[in-house]
Specification:
The complex is a heterodimer of chains A (176) and B (391). Chain A is built from 4 helices and 7 strands; from the N terminus they run βααββββββαα. Chain A is of the alpha+beta class. Chain A has a 7-stranded antiparallel beta sheet with strand order 1-7-6-5-4-3-2. Chain B folds into 2 domains: 222 residues, Medium-chain alcohol dehydrogenases, catalytic domain (Quinone Oxidoreductase, Chain A, domain 1), CATH 3.90.180; 161 residues, 3-Layer(aba) Sandwich (Rossmann fold). In chain B, α6 crosses α7, α7 runs parallel beside α8 and α9 runs parallel beside α11. Chains A and B meet through α4 of A and β1, β4 and α3 of B.
Amino acid sequence: MASRHRYNVCTKRSITIHKSPEELYHAWRDPGKLVNFLSGAAEVSVLDDRRSLWISDIPGKGCVSWEAEIITDRTDKSLSWRTVNTTGFGHTGSVHFAAAPNSLGTEVGLEVCTRITGGRLGKAVAKMLGRSPEDYVSQTLHNFKQLMETGEVATNKGPSGREKAPVEQCGQGGAL
Amino acid sequence: MRAACWQDKHTVEVRNVPDPEIVNPHDIILKVTHTTICGSDLHLYDGVVPGMSKGDIIGHEPVGEVEEAGSAVGKHKVGDRVAVSSVIGCGRCFYCRNQEFSMCDNSNPNAWMQEKVYTYPTAGIFGYSHLFGGYPGAQAEYLRVPYADVGAFSIPEGISSEQAVCITDAFPTGFMGADLCGLKGGETVVVWGAGPVGLFVMKSARLLGAERVIAVDNIPYRLETAREQCGAETLDFTETGVTDTLREMTAGRGPDCCIDACGMEAHGTNAFVGAYDAVKQAVMLENDRGHVVRQMIEACRKGGTIVIMGVYSLFVDKFPLGAAFNKGLTFRMGQMHGPKYIQRLFDYTLQGKIDPSFCLTNKFLLNEIPHAYEVFKKRTDNCVKVLVKVS
Protein backbone atom coordinates (compact mmCIF):
# COMPACT_ATOMS: atom_id res chain seq x y z
CA MET A 1 0.00 0.00 0.00
CA ALA A 2 1.11 3.51 -0.73
CA SER A 3 1.00 4.53 2.89
CA ARG A 4 3.79 2.06 3.69
CA HIS A 5 6.16 3.80 1.26
CA ARG A 6 8.23 6.80 2.09
CA TYR A 7 8.33 8.79 -1.13
CA ASN A 8 11.66 10.48 -0.76
CA VAL A 9 12.44 11.71 -4.26
CA CYS A 10 10.19 14.42 -5.67
CA THR A 11 10.64 15.84 -9.15
CA LYS A 12 8.80 18.93 -10.29
CA ARG A 13 8.85 20.35 -13.80
CA SER A 14 6.62 22.64 -15.80
CA ILE A 15 5.84 23.33 -19.44
CA THR A 16 3.73 25.80 -21.41
CA ILE A 17 1.14 24.36 -23.81
CA HIS A 18 -0.77 26.34 -26.40
CA LYS A 19 -4.19 25.10 -25.27
CA SER A 20 -6.70 26.19 -22.62
CA PRO A 21 -6.55 24.91 -19.02
CA GLU A 22 -9.96 23.29 -19.61
CA GLU A 23 -8.80 21.20 -22.59
CA LEU A 24 -5.63 20.12 -20.79
CA TYR A 25 -7.41 19.24 -17.55
CA HIS A 26 -9.94 17.09 -19.42
CA ALA A 27 -7.21 15.29 -21.38
CA TRP A 28 -5.34 14.48 -18.16
CA ARG A 29 -8.55 13.41 -16.40
CA ASP A 30 -9.28 10.84 -19.16
CA PRO A 31 -7.15 7.69 -18.72
CA GLY A 32 -7.84 6.81 -22.39
CA LYS A 33 -5.96 9.97 -23.41
CA LEU A 34 -3.44 9.91 -20.57
CA VAL A 35 -2.16 6.50 -21.72
CA ASN A 36 -1.00 8.15 -24.96
CA PHE A 37 1.41 10.54 -23.31
CA LEU A 38 2.39 9.19 -19.90
CA SER A 39 6.01 8.22 -20.52
CA GLY A 40 6.34 4.45 -20.82
CA ALA A 41 2.62 3.76 -20.33
CA ALA A 42 1.51 0.65 -22.18
CA GLU A 43 -2.06 -0.16 -21.06
CA VAL A 44 -4.76 1.28 -18.83
CA SER A 45 -8.08 -0.07 -17.57
CA VAL A 46 -10.63 2.23 -15.98
CA LEU A 47 -11.88 0.73 -12.68
CA ASP A 48 -14.24 3.53 -11.64
CA ASP A 49 -14.43 7.32 -11.76
CA ARG A 50 -11.42 7.74 -9.49
CA ARG A 51 -9.38 4.59 -10.00
CA SER A 52 -7.53 3.13 -12.97
CA LEU A 53 -5.15 0.18 -13.43
CA TRP A 54 -1.90 0.85 -15.27
CA ILE A 55 0.75 -1.31 -16.90
CA SER A 56 3.90 0.52 -17.80
CA ASP A 57 7.43 0.01 -19.03
CA ILE A 58 9.39 2.21 -16.67
CA PRO A 59 12.95 2.74 -17.90
CA GLY A 60 15.32 0.87 -15.66
CA LYS A 61 12.50 -0.87 -13.82
CA GLY A 62 10.89 -2.93 -16.57
CA CYS A 63 7.22 -3.82 -16.80
CA VAL A 64 5.32 -2.75 -13.69
CA SER A 65 1.67 -2.23 -12.73
CA TRP A 66 -0.17 -0.04 -10.26
CA GLU A 67 -3.58 1.28 -9.42
CA ALA A 68 -3.86 5.06 -9.57
CA GLU A 69 -6.38 6.62 -7.24
CA ILE A 70 -7.35 10.28 -7.58
CA ILE A 71 -7.07 12.08 -4.26
CA THR A 72 -8.03 15.62 -5.17
CA ASP A 73 -9.83 16.83 -8.28
CA ARG A 74 -10.31 20.56 -8.90
CA THR A 75 -11.98 20.88 -12.27
CA ASP A 76 -9.83 22.78 -14.83
CA LYS A 77 -7.24 23.52 -12.13
CA SER A 78 -5.49 20.48 -10.69
CA LEU A 79 -5.45 16.78 -9.97
CA SER A 80 -3.51 14.69 -7.51
CA TRP A 81 -3.26 10.92 -7.18
CA ARG A 82 -1.48 8.13 -5.36
CA THR A 83 -0.72 4.57 -6.29
CA VAL A 84 -1.93 1.44 -4.55
CA ASN A 85 -1.28 -2.26 -5.16
CA THR A 86 1.91 -1.60 -7.11
CA THR A 87 4.45 -4.06 -8.44
CA GLY A 88 6.89 -1.14 -8.77
CA PHE A 89 6.97 2.59 -9.37
CA GLY A 90 4.86 3.41 -6.38
CA HIS A 91 4.42 7.16 -6.38
CA THR A 92 2.26 10.14 -5.68
CA GLY A 93 1.67 12.78 -8.30
CA SER A 94 -0.02 16.07 -8.94
CA VAL A 95 -0.63 18.24 -11.97
CA HIS A 96 -1.68 21.91 -12.02
CA PHE A 97 -3.07 24.01 -14.86
CA ALA A 98 -2.94 27.84 -14.88
CA ALA A 99 -3.44 30.33 -17.69
CA ALA A 100 -0.10 31.54 -19.11
CA PRO A 101 0.57 35.24 -19.72
CA ASN A 102 0.45 36.91 -23.12
CA SER A 103 -2.03 34.39 -24.60
CA LEU A 104 0.63 31.69 -24.57
CA GLY A 105 -1.83 29.01 -23.42
CA THR A 106 -1.48 27.16 -20.14
CA GLU A 107 1.33 26.60 -17.68
CA VAL A 108 1.30 22.95 -16.64
CA GLY A 109 3.19 21.84 -13.53
CA LEU A 110 3.78 18.16 -12.82
CA GLU A 111 5.21 16.74 -9.62
CA VAL A 112 5.96 13.08 -9.09
CA CYS A 113 7.29 11.72 -5.79
CA THR A 114 8.67 8.21 -5.81
CA ARG A 115 10.66 6.04 -3.49
CA ILE A 116 14.27 5.32 -4.20
CA THR A 117 15.85 3.00 -1.67
CA GLY A 118 19.37 3.53 -0.43
CA GLY A 119 19.42 7.31 -0.69
CA ARG A 120 22.07 8.74 -2.99
CA LEU A 121 23.37 5.31 -3.88
CA GLY A 122 19.91 4.13 -4.87
CA LYS A 123 19.41 7.20 -6.99
CA ALA A 124 22.74 6.65 -8.69
CA VAL A 125 21.82 3.04 -9.40
CA ALA A 126 18.43 4.11 -10.78
CA LYS A 127 20.22 6.52 -13.12
CA MET A 128 22.61 3.83 -14.24
CA LEU A 129 19.76 1.45 -14.95
CA GLY A 130 17.80 3.87 -17.01
CA ARG A 131 16.49 7.37 -17.20
CA SER A 132 16.13 9.36 -14.02
CA PRO A 133 12.83 10.51 -12.45
CA GLU A 134 13.63 13.97 -13.89
CA ASP A 135 13.72 12.51 -17.41
CA TYR A 136 10.47 10.63 -16.80
CA VAL A 137 8.68 13.81 -15.72
CA SER A 138 10.23 15.88 -18.51
CA GLN A 139 9.37 13.36 -21.22
CA THR A 140 5.79 12.98 -19.95
CA LEU A 141 5.31 16.76 -20.14
CA HIS A 142 6.85 16.94 -23.63
CA ASN A 143 4.67 14.04 -24.81
CA PHE A 144 1.59 15.81 -23.39
CA LYS A 145 2.51 19.06 -25.16
CA GLN A 146 3.15 17.24 -28.46
CA LEU A 147 -0.16 15.41 -28.29
CA MET A 148 -2.22 18.45 -27.35
CA GLU A 149 -0.58 20.88 -29.78
CA THR A 150 -0.16 18.61 -32.80
CA GLY A 151 -2.53 15.68 -32.24
CA GLU A 152 0.28 13.14 -32.02
CA VAL A 153 3.29 12.20 -29.89
CA ALA A 154 6.56 12.65 -31.78
CA THR A 155 8.44 9.43 -32.35
CA ASN A 156 11.58 8.31 -34.11
CA LYS A 157 10.22 4.80 -34.66
CA GLY A 158 11.78 3.47 -37.80
CA PRO A 159 14.51 1.34 -39.27
CA SER A 160 18.21 1.30 -38.48
CA GLY A 161 21.16 -0.90 -39.22
CA ARG A 162 21.52 -1.51 -35.51
CA GLU A 163 21.73 -5.07 -34.36
CA LYS A 164 20.10 -4.40 -31.02
CA ALA A 165 17.69 -1.76 -29.79
CA PRO A 166 19.14 1.61 -28.74
CA VAL A 167 19.58 2.22 -25.06
CA GLU A 168 17.12 5.08 -24.81
CA GLN A 169 13.38 4.62 -24.96
CA CYS A 170 11.93 7.06 -27.44
CA GLY A 171 8.53 8.63 -27.96
CA GLN A 172 5.96 5.94 -28.17
CA GLY A 173 3.84 7.50 -30.91
CA GLY A 174 0.12 7.89 -30.58
CA ALA A 175 -2.58 10.30 -31.60
CA LEU A 176 -5.77 11.79 -30.29
CA MET B 1 15.44 -1.47 -48.16
CA ARG B 2 19.02 -0.34 -48.56
CA ALA B 3 20.30 2.52 -46.42
CA ALA B 4 23.56 4.24 -45.54
CA CYS B 5 24.32 3.39 -41.92
CA TRP B 6 26.85 5.20 -39.74
CA GLN B 7 29.11 2.59 -38.14
CA ASP B 8 31.90 4.55 -36.56
CA LYS B 9 34.22 7.46 -37.24
CA HIS B 10 35.00 7.41 -40.98
CA THR B 11 32.90 4.30 -41.61
CA VAL B 12 29.55 4.40 -43.43
CA GLU B 13 28.12 1.17 -44.84
CA VAL B 14 25.15 0.46 -47.11
CA ARG B 15 23.04 -2.15 -45.36
CA ASN B 16 19.72 -3.92 -45.77
CA VAL B 17 17.32 -2.64 -43.11
CA PRO B 18 13.53 -2.89 -42.60
CA ASP B 19 11.31 -0.50 -44.58
CA PRO B 20 9.82 2.40 -42.60
CA GLU B 21 6.09 2.44 -41.88
CA ILE B 22 3.50 5.10 -41.16
CA VAL B 23 3.42 5.58 -37.36
CA ASN B 24 1.58 8.85 -36.79
CA PRO B 25 -1.35 10.38 -38.73
CA HIS B 26 0.69 13.29 -40.17
CA ASP B 27 3.41 10.98 -41.60
CA ILE B 28 4.16 10.19 -45.20
CA ILE B 29 6.46 7.49 -46.49
CA LEU B 30 8.74 8.98 -49.14
CA LYS B 31 10.28 6.87 -51.89
CA VAL B 32 13.61 8.68 -52.06
CA THR B 33 14.83 9.32 -55.59
CA HIS B 34 17.63 11.82 -54.91
CA THR B 35 19.63 12.84 -51.88
CA THR B 36 23.02 14.37 -51.15
CA ILE B 37 25.83 14.40 -48.64
CA CYS B 38 25.94 17.61 -46.62
CA GLY B 39 28.98 19.26 -45.08
CA SER B 40 27.35 18.63 -41.71
CA ASP B 41 27.27 14.89 -42.52
CA LEU B 42 31.05 15.16 -42.52
CA HIS B 43 30.86 16.21 -38.86
CA LEU B 44 29.07 12.89 -38.20
CA TYR B 45 31.59 11.10 -40.43
CA ASP B 46 34.45 12.63 -38.43
CA GLY B 47 32.83 11.59 -35.15
CA VAL B 48 32.62 15.09 -33.65
CA VAL B 49 28.82 15.17 -33.17
CA PRO B 50 27.73 13.60 -29.88
CA GLY B 51 24.81 11.18 -29.68
CA MET B 52 25.44 8.84 -32.62
CA SER B 53 24.82 5.08 -32.39
CA LYS B 54 26.27 2.39 -34.60
CA GLY B 55 23.74 1.56 -37.31
CA ASP B 56 22.03 4.96 -37.47
CA ILE B 57 20.77 5.82 -40.96
CA ILE B 58 22.15 9.24 -41.86
CA GLY B 59 21.39 11.93 -44.45
CA HIS B 60 18.95 14.84 -44.35
CA GLU B 61 18.34 16.11 -47.89
CA PRO B 62 15.50 14.08 -49.39
CA VAL B 63 13.63 14.40 -52.67
CA GLY B 64 11.25 11.73 -53.90
CA GLU B 65 7.71 10.54 -54.44
CA VAL B 66 4.99 10.09 -51.85
CA GLU B 67 4.59 6.32 -51.47
CA GLU B 68 1.98 6.38 -48.70
CA ALA B 69 0.23 9.12 -46.74
CA GLY B 70 -1.08 9.06 -43.16
CA SER B 71 -4.74 9.70 -42.34
CA ALA B 72 -4.24 13.34 -41.31
CA VAL B 73 -2.05 14.40 -44.25
CA GLY B 74 -3.94 17.01 -46.27
CA LYS B 75 -1.39 18.56 -48.60
CA HIS B 76 0.09 15.51 -50.32
CA LYS B 77 -1.16 12.42 -52.09
CA VAL B 78 0.45 9.24 -53.28
CA GLY B 79 2.66 9.86 -56.32
CA ASP B 80 3.37 13.56 -55.60
CA ARG B 81 6.96 14.62 -56.19
CA VAL B 82 8.18 16.45 -53.07
CA ALA B 83 11.24 18.04 -51.51
CA VAL B 84 11.51 17.69 -47.73
CA SER B 85 13.12 20.11 -45.28
CA SER B 86 16.02 18.60 -43.35
CA VAL B 87 14.77 20.30 -40.17
CA ILE B 88 11.47 18.90 -38.87
CA GLY B 89 8.82 21.36 -37.64
CA CYS B 90 5.46 20.47 -36.11
CA GLY B 91 3.83 23.61 -37.53
CA ARG B 92 1.76 24.22 -34.38
CA CYS B 93 4.05 25.29 -31.54
CA PHE B 94 5.03 28.85 -30.62
CA TYR B 95 8.24 28.68 -32.66
CA CYS B 96 6.74 27.12 -35.79
CA ARG B 97 3.93 29.70 -35.72
CA ASN B 98 6.73 32.32 -35.73
CA GLN B 99 8.36 30.58 -38.74
CA GLU B 100 11.31 29.55 -36.54
CA PHE B 101 11.01 25.89 -37.46
CA SER B 102 14.46 24.76 -36.29
CA MET B 103 13.49 25.71 -32.74
CA CYS B 104 10.32 23.58 -32.88
CA ASP B 105 9.13 22.60 -29.40
CA ASN B 106 7.54 19.33 -30.45
CA SER B 107 9.44 17.50 -33.19
CA ASN B 108 12.31 16.13 -31.09
CA PRO B 109 11.30 12.82 -29.47
CA ASN B 110 14.50 12.95 -27.42
CA ALA B 111 13.67 16.29 -25.81
CA TRP B 112 14.67 14.87 -22.41
CA MET B 113 18.14 14.11 -23.80
CA GLN B 114 18.71 17.43 -25.53
CA GLU B 115 17.55 19.42 -22.49
CA LYS B 116 20.63 18.18 -20.65
CA VAL B 117 22.86 19.80 -23.27
CA TYR B 118 20.99 22.91 -24.44
CA THR B 119 18.45 23.38 -21.57
CA TYR B 120 15.58 23.56 -24.07
CA PRO B 121 15.03 21.01 -26.84
CA THR B 122 15.34 22.09 -30.49
CA ALA B 123 13.78 20.60 -33.60
CA GLY B 124 14.43 17.08 -34.83
CA ILE B 125 16.60 16.71 -37.93
CA PHE B 126 16.58 13.65 -40.19
CA GLY B 127 19.58 11.38 -39.68
CA TYR B 128 21.46 13.74 -37.43
CA SER B 129 22.17 12.03 -34.09
CA HIS B 130 19.95 11.06 -31.19
CA LEU B 131 20.38 14.52 -29.71
CA PHE B 132 18.41 15.85 -32.67
CA GLY B 133 15.67 13.26 -32.38
CA GLY B 134 17.24 10.00 -33.54
CA TYR B 135 15.19 10.06 -36.74
CA PRO B 136 16.28 7.65 -39.49
CA GLY B 137 17.93 9.58 -42.31
CA ALA B 138 17.46 10.22 -46.01
CA GLN B 139 20.38 8.31 -47.51
CA ALA B 140 18.00 5.40 -47.92
CA GLU B 141 15.44 4.06 -50.35
CA TYR B 142 12.49 5.06 -48.15
CA LEU B 143 11.99 7.66 -45.44
CA ARG B 144 9.22 8.28 -42.91
CA VAL B 145 8.50 12.02 -42.93
CA PRO B 146 6.63 13.24 -39.82
CA TYR B 147 4.42 16.38 -39.99
CA ALA B 148 4.54 16.08 -43.79
CA ASP B 149 2.14 18.96 -44.38
CA VAL B 150 4.73 21.26 -42.76
CA GLY B 151 8.06 19.99 -44.10
CA ALA B 152 7.31 18.42 -47.50
CA PHE B 153 6.76 20.70 -50.48
CA SER B 154 5.41 19.68 -53.89
CA ILE B 155 8.05 20.37 -56.51
CA PRO B 156 6.64 22.70 -59.18
CA GLU B 157 6.78 21.82 -62.88
CA GLY B 158 9.97 23.24 -64.29
CA ILE B 159 12.17 22.40 -61.31
CA SER B 160 14.36 19.33 -61.65
CA SER B 161 14.99 16.86 -58.85
CA GLU B 162 18.65 17.92 -58.89
CA GLN B 163 17.60 21.53 -58.29
CA ALA B 164 15.03 20.52 -55.67
CA VAL B 165 17.47 18.42 -53.64
CA CYS B 166 19.59 21.55 -53.11
CA ILE B 167 16.50 23.35 -51.76
CA THR B 168 15.98 20.84 -48.92
CA ASP B 169 18.91 22.11 -46.85
CA ALA B 170 22.00 23.65 -48.49
CA PHE B 171 20.32 26.53 -50.34
CA PRO B 172 17.90 27.47 -47.50
CA THR B 173 20.84 27.36 -45.06
CA GLY B 174 22.82 29.73 -47.28
CA PHE B 175 19.79 31.89 -47.91
CA MET B 176 19.04 32.18 -44.19
CA GLY B 177 22.67 33.28 -43.66
CA ALA B 178 22.13 36.20 -46.00
CA ASP B 179 18.62 36.83 -44.65
CA LEU B 180 19.91 37.12 -41.07
CA CYS B 181 22.24 39.94 -42.20
CA GLY B 182 19.18 42.14 -42.66
CA LEU B 183 20.57 43.53 -45.91
CA LYS B 184 19.09 46.78 -47.15
CA GLY B 185 21.21 46.99 -50.29
CA GLY B 186 24.78 48.07 -50.99
CA GLU B 187 26.51 46.16 -48.18
CA THR B 188 29.84 44.36 -48.21
CA VAL B 189 29.41 40.75 -47.07
CA VAL B 190 32.30 38.38 -46.28
CA VAL B 191 31.73 34.62 -46.27
CA TRP B 192 34.13 32.23 -44.55
CA GLY B 193 34.01 28.88 -46.38
CA ALA B 194 33.36 28.43 -50.10
CA GLY B 195 31.72 25.02 -49.82
CA PRO B 196 28.11 24.47 -50.95
CA VAL B 197 26.52 26.47 -48.11
CA GLY B 198 29.06 29.29 -48.46
CA LEU B 199 28.43 29.51 -52.20
CA PHE B 200 24.67 29.66 -51.55
CA VAL B 201 25.26 32.42 -48.96
CA MET B 202 27.15 34.39 -51.62
CA LYS B 203 24.46 33.94 -54.27
CA SER B 204 21.73 34.77 -51.73
CA ALA B 205 23.53 37.89 -50.53
CA ARG B 206 23.59 39.06 -54.14
CA LEU B 207 19.87 38.25 -54.52
CA LEU B 208 19.14 40.31 -51.39
CA GLY B 209 21.12 43.35 -52.51
CA ALA B 210 24.71 43.05 -51.29
CA GLU B 211 27.07 45.15 -53.41
CA ARG B 212 30.29 43.28 -52.68
CA VAL B 213 30.73 39.64 -51.73
CA ILE B 214 34.12 38.40 -50.54
CA ALA B 215 34.91 34.69 -50.06
CA VAL B 216 37.55 33.40 -47.62
CA ASP B 217 38.87 29.86 -48.14
CA ASN B 218 42.13 28.10 -48.98
CA ILE B 219 41.08 25.66 -51.69
CA PRO B 220 41.84 27.09 -55.15
CA TYR B 221 39.00 25.39 -57.05
CA ARG B 222 36.45 26.50 -54.46
CA LEU B 223 37.69 30.08 -54.60
CA GLU B 224 37.50 29.87 -58.39
CA THR B 225 33.89 28.65 -58.14
CA ALA B 226 33.11 31.59 -55.82
CA ARG B 227 34.54 34.03 -58.37
CA GLU B 228 32.93 32.46 -61.42
CA GLN B 229 29.54 31.38 -60.03
CA CYS B 230 28.92 34.03 -57.38
CA GLY B 231 30.81 37.09 -58.61
CA ALA B 232 32.81 37.06 -55.38
CA GLU B 233 36.20 38.59 -54.70
CA THR B 234 38.35 35.97 -53.02
CA LEU B 235 40.91 35.73 -50.21
CA ASP B 236 43.14 32.69 -49.68
CA PHE B 237 43.72 32.72 -45.93
CA THR B 238 47.03 30.90 -46.32
CA GLU B 239 48.41 33.72 -48.45
CA THR B 240 47.24 36.82 -46.64
CA GLY B 241 46.29 38.13 -43.23
CA VAL B 242 42.52 38.07 -43.47
CA THR B 243 41.65 40.82 -40.98
CA ASP B 244 44.18 43.34 -42.31
CA THR B 245 43.33 42.56 -45.91
CA LEU B 246 39.60 43.01 -45.32
CA ARG B 247 40.24 46.33 -43.57
CA GLU B 248 42.23 47.56 -46.55
CA MET B 249 39.72 46.19 -49.09
CA THR B 250 37.09 48.32 -47.36
CA ALA B 251 39.28 51.41 -46.91
CA GLY B 252 39.38 51.13 -43.14
CA ARG B 253 35.65 50.56 -42.60
CA GLY B 254 35.51 46.76 -42.32
CA PRO B 255 32.81 44.55 -43.83
CA ASP B 256 29.17 45.11 -42.83
CA CYS B 257 28.39 41.43 -42.37
CA CYS B 258 30.59 38.39 -41.69
CA ILE B 259 29.12 34.93 -42.21
CA ASP B 260 30.58 31.63 -41.01
CA ALA B 261 29.80 28.82 -43.45
CA CYS B 262 32.49 26.50 -42.05
CA GLY B 263 31.46 25.43 -38.56
CA MET B 264 33.26 23.50 -35.90
CA GLU B 265 35.83 21.75 -38.08
CA ALA B 266 37.19 24.80 -39.88
CA HIS B 267 40.85 24.72 -40.85
CA GLY B 268 42.98 27.43 -39.31
CA THR B 269 45.01 30.32 -40.62
CA ASN B 270 47.17 30.99 -37.62
CA ALA B 271 49.34 27.97 -36.94
CA PHE B 272 49.37 28.44 -33.17
CA VAL B 273 45.66 29.16 -32.74
CA GLY B 274 44.70 26.45 -35.24
CA ALA B 275 46.81 23.89 -33.42
CA TYR B 276 45.43 25.05 -30.06
CA ASP B 277 41.86 24.39 -31.21
CA ALA B 278 42.64 21.16 -33.03
CA VAL B 279 44.45 19.66 -30.05
CA LYS B 280 41.74 20.68 -27.60
CA GLN B 281 39.08 19.30 -29.93
CA ALA B 282 40.98 16.04 -30.33
CA VAL B 283 41.15 15.49 -26.58
CA MET B 284 37.56 16.71 -26.10
CA LEU B 285 38.51 19.74 -23.98
CA GLU B 286 36.88 21.89 -26.62
CA ASN B 287 34.32 20.42 -28.99
CA ASP B 288 34.34 23.13 -31.58
CA ARG B 289 37.20 24.96 -33.26
CA GLY B 290 36.46 28.62 -32.89
CA HIS B 291 38.99 30.55 -34.95
CA VAL B 292 36.56 31.53 -37.74
CA VAL B 293 34.25 33.17 -35.22
CA ARG B 294 37.22 34.90 -33.58
CA GLN B 295 38.40 36.18 -36.96
CA MET B 296 34.93 37.40 -37.91
CA ILE B 297 34.74 39.41 -34.68
CA GLU B 298 38.12 40.97 -35.44
CA ALA B 299 37.30 41.74 -39.06
CA CYS B 300 33.72 43.01 -38.84
CA ARG B 301 33.05 46.74 -38.88
CA LYS B 302 31.77 48.45 -35.72
CA GLY B 303 28.06 47.86 -35.37
CA GLY B 304 28.21 45.09 -37.98
CA THR B 305 26.51 41.71 -37.99
CA ILE B 306 28.07 38.29 -37.37
CA VAL B 307 26.07 35.36 -38.75
CA ILE B 308 26.90 31.73 -38.01
CA MET B 309 25.43 29.06 -40.30
CA GLY B 310 28.26 26.49 -40.00
CA VAL B 311 27.38 23.95 -37.32
CA TYR B 312 28.72 24.09 -33.77
CA SER B 313 27.93 21.47 -31.14
CA LEU B 314 29.14 22.50 -27.69
CA PHE B 315 32.01 24.70 -26.50
CA VAL B 316 34.45 27.17 -27.96
CA ASP B 317 37.37 28.65 -26.05
CA LYS B 318 38.97 32.09 -26.09
CA PHE B 319 35.93 33.98 -27.26
CA PRO B 320 36.90 37.65 -27.82
CA LEU B 321 33.93 39.07 -26.00
CA GLY B 322 35.62 42.40 -25.34
CA ALA B 323 36.04 43.19 -29.03
CA ALA B 324 32.48 42.05 -29.77
CA PHE B 325 31.09 44.18 -26.95
CA ASN B 326 33.04 47.33 -27.60
CA LYS B 327 32.37 47.16 -31.36
CA GLY B 328 28.67 46.75 -30.71
CA LEU B 329 28.31 43.67 -32.89
CA THR B 330 25.05 41.84 -33.53
CA PHE B 331 25.10 38.03 -33.56
CA ARG B 332 22.57 35.96 -35.52
CA MET B 333 22.80 32.21 -35.93
CA GLY B 334 21.01 28.89 -35.86
CA GLN B 335 19.94 25.82 -37.75
CA MET B 336 17.95 26.84 -40.80
CA HIS B 337 14.17 27.23 -40.79
CA GLY B 338 13.58 25.10 -43.90
CA PRO B 339 9.80 25.43 -44.36
CA LYS B 340 10.08 29.22 -44.10
CA TYR B 341 12.23 29.40 -47.22
CA ILE B 342 11.57 26.42 -49.49
CA GLN B 343 8.66 27.87 -51.52
CA ARG B 344 10.49 31.20 -51.92
CA LEU B 345 13.57 29.39 -53.25
CA PHE B 346 11.43 27.38 -55.68
CA ASP B 347 10.16 30.74 -56.94
CA TYR B 348 13.66 32.19 -57.40
CA THR B 349 14.58 29.03 -59.31
CA LEU B 350 11.50 29.20 -61.56
CA GLN B 351 12.20 32.89 -62.21
CA GLY B 352 15.69 31.93 -63.42
CA LYS B 353 17.42 34.01 -60.74
CA ILE B 354 19.44 30.98 -59.68
CA ASP B 355 20.06 27.38 -60.71
CA PRO B 356 20.71 25.68 -57.36
CA SER B 357 22.10 22.54 -59.03
CA PHE B 358 25.26 24.46 -60.00
CA CYS B 359 27.00 23.02 -56.93
CA LEU B 360 26.39 19.32 -57.75
CA THR B 361 29.78 18.39 -59.16
CA ASN B 362 29.94 14.67 -58.38
CA LYS B 363 27.22 12.05 -58.87
CA PHE B 364 26.97 8.63 -57.23
CA LEU B 365 24.50 5.81 -56.69
CA LEU B 366 23.30 4.84 -53.19
CA ASN B 367 25.57 1.78 -52.99
CA GLU B 368 28.56 4.00 -53.81
CA ILE B 369 28.01 6.20 -50.74
CA PRO B 370 31.05 4.99 -48.75
CA HIS B 371 33.25 6.14 -51.65
CA ALA B 372 31.22 9.34 -52.05
CA TYR B 373 31.96 10.26 -48.41
CA GLU B 374 35.67 9.86 -49.05
CA VAL B 375 35.53 12.00 -52.20
CA PHE B 376 33.59 14.74 -50.41
CA LYS B 377 35.75 14.55 -47.29
CA LYS B 378 39.07 14.66 -49.16
CA ARG B 379 37.72 17.09 -51.79
CA THR B 380 39.19 15.00 -54.57
CA ASP B 381 38.07 15.51 -58.15
CA ASN B 382 37.30 19.21 -57.38
CA CYS B 383 34.21 18.08 -55.48
CA VAL B 384 31.86 20.85 -54.35
CA LYS B 385 28.75 18.82 -53.52
CA VAL B 386 27.73 15.20 -54.01
CA LEU B 387 24.44 14.10 -55.58
CA VAL B 388 23.24 10.60 -54.70
CA LYS B 389 20.75 9.01 -57.10
CA VAL B 390 18.75 6.51 -55.11
CA SER B 391 16.18 5.24 -57.62
